[in-house]
Amino acid sequence: MITRFEPAMADGLRAFNNRLKASGVPYQFPEHSTPAWLPPQDSRRTFQEYYLAVEDGETVRGGYILKWQEFHIAGVTKPVGYVHLPSRKDSSTESTALWACS
Fold first, then answer.
1. Per-block average pLDDT, block size 10, for the chain (102 residues)?
2. b or e along 39-52 (b: 16 or more beta carbons within 10 Å of the residue's beta carbon)?
3. What CA–CA distance (Å, rounded) separates 93 from 95?
4. What is the helix (H) or strand (E) element at residue 54, kind and residue range?
5. pTM value?
6. pLDDT value at position 86?
7. pLDDT at 52
8. What are the b/e assignments for 69-91, b being 16+ CB within 10 Å?
């Protein structure tokens, strides 16, 4: 099941990151449920949300980061979601991306 990352899932996410590291994967998912950069706030229109793929209610199998931002497209302002995957722990600029309009 895909679900928004909640604080109660932190242990499962740490275990996921440890499995990745043990397998030689250089990518890590952020381990705090609230993004340090662009956290959701009531008045903010540009923000990030973290989502996890969870099996059996606790085992994290994957995740992605969704950044929402408004864009002016063909004369209309629309919220656009930018989906990116975790980056190398030592490189905050590397990501894989997919754009989607709501």
1. 95 94 89 87 89 93 92 91 69 44 42
2. eeeeeeeeebbbeb
3. 6
4. strand 47-55
5. 0.79
6. 64
7. 94
8. eeeeeeeeeeeeebebebbeeee
Around 52, how many Cα atoms within 13 Å sit in the side-chain half-sphere?
Answer: 28
Q: What is the spatial distance between Cα 68 and Cα 51, in angstroms, rounded to a whole number?
A: 13
In this prediction, residue 4 carries a pLDDT of: 95
- Amino acid identity, position 11: D
Alpha helix positions (H), the chain: 10-22
In degrees, rounded to 5, the angle at the alpha carbon of residue 99 between the alpha carbons of residues 73 and 94 is 125
**Distances in whole angstroms, Cα of residue 23 to Cα of each of 2, 17, 20, 88:** 23, 10, 5, 14
Angle at 26 between CA 21 and CA 32, to 5 degrees: 75
What integer pLDDT is reported at residue 99 of this predicted model? 45
